[in-house]
Design a protein that fits this description.
Largest sheet: 8 strands, mixed
Radius of gyration: 32 Å
Distance between the termini: 155 Å
CATH superfamily of the domain at 50-231: P-loop containing nucleotide triphosphate hydrolases
Structural class: alpha/beta
Number of strands: 10
Order of helices and strands: HEHEEHEHEHEHEEEEH
CATH topology of the domain at 50-231: Rossmann fold
């Protein structure tokens, strides 16, 4: 049986086909849901934070962070040249605000044992401080993941000197279900490595009780300038004088009295004595 050929009359006219525009959004300017809008950001703008944020305690730093503080339900990295020198000074306002409000803060593998009297001077309630004393990289990572999974802490701060990129990515996924900030303290050598953390800071301790902070990564345009934050230890503020606030300006007084040793003085006197001619 020969094939049946269909003529043009058997084909529906193109005008009767449904228009592709029927699947398009009716109004392209229709606003997105607030939660979706907060999660989106453009490269030339400072992103907002879909979840809750907590102030860092430093107005200068809050001004450049998306949402205006430490992001909750997200991972933050603080890179430092040496542990236990600057990262705690940067985090003390956060830890103090949480523990004062009866919210637990977990410290995983801090480089030094917490000093309770010093913490009290900085406004920290040690009753709500959890200290996990672990040493090996495997134990540090396991303890951090378990504390984040528990969702019982107001914040989790972990010192992870040796951690792989895939582990950081897994922590970022777990942190999205956490009610508070999840902060990793890592060495500054990790700055050249890629990281899944949406926020990365490089912190150094400077003179005159200052902390310099470079924002390496954030949701927004790069931050070119270096931030300088003033952080006084809690036990020092009560005895701090205006001169001690800028101790680098103090210069030792130069003495105008020259002390010359006895042999050097004898040589000096002979050199200055007038020459006499023999008769």
């Amino acid at each position: 049986m020969p094939p049946v050929s269909l003529g043009l009359d058997a084909v529906s006219p193109l005008s009767s086909l449904p228009s592709p525009l029927q699947n398009a959004v009716v109004d392209v300017h229709e606003p997105l849901p607030p939660q979706v809008e907060a999660a989106l950001w453009r490269g030339h703008q400072l992103g907002s934070q879909a979840s809750e944020i907590m102030s860092t305690g430093f107005d200068t730093l809050d001004a450049v962070l998306p949402g205006g503080g430490w992001p909750c339900g997200s991972l933050t990295e603080i890179l430092v040249p040496q542990f236990s020198v600057v990262e705690l000074r940067l985090l003390l306002p956060l830890v103090g605000a949480l523990t004062t409000g009866a919210r637990a803060v977990a410290l995983v593998g801090p480089p030094m044992d917490p000093h309770v009297p010093g913490l009290r001077h900085d406004g920290i309630n040690e009753r709500h401080l959890i200290w996990s004393d672990v040493d090996t990289p495997k134990d540090r990572l396991w303890a951090t993941e378990q504390l984040v999974r528990s969702r019982k802490c107001g914040a989790v701060v972990a010192w992870l000197p040796h951690v792989r990129a895939e582990s950081v990515r897994r922590l970022q996924v777990l942190a999205s279900q956490c009610a508070g900030p999840v902060i990793l303290c890592r060495p500054d050598s990790a700055a050249r490595d890629a990281s899944a953390a949406p926020l990365r800071l490089l912190a150094r301790y400077e003179t005159d009780w200052q902390i310099s902070v470079d924002v390496l990564k954030r949701k927004g345009a790069p931050v070119e300038e270096q931030l300088h934050l003033v952080s006084f230890p809690g036990g020092v503020t009560k005895i701090m004088t205006p001169r001690l606030r800028h101790y680098s300006r103090l210069r030792p007084r130069q003495s105008h009295v020259v002390v010359v040793s006895t042999p050097a003085a004898a040589v000096h006197e002979r050199s200055e004595a007038p020459e006499t001619s023999e008769p």
